[in-house]
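Page 37, continued from 36.
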């Protein structure tokens, strides 16, 4: 992951969703993100629902023939 830009509200990070990660996300109900505020000792855990992910990613990727 690499930082794209940072502003006073926070930083944006960019990363590629490769096929193994996409397949894993299709099979699971949620994923977890851990992040740390600048100069903080403890990481914050955020759990994100994957409900509807398979349907949404299918609409983004047209069927390849």
């Amino acid at each position: 992951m690499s930082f794209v830009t940072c502003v006073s509200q926070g930083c944006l990070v960019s990363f590629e969703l490769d096929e193994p990660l996409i397949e894993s996300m299709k099979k699971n109900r949620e994923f977890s993100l851990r992040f740390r505020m600048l100069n903080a000792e403890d990481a914050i855990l955020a759990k994100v629902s994957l409900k509807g992910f398979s349907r949404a990613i299918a609409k983004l990727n047209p069927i390849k023939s």
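The mean pLDDT is 85. Flag for discussion at group meeting. Residues 26 and 54 are 5 Å apart (CA to CA).
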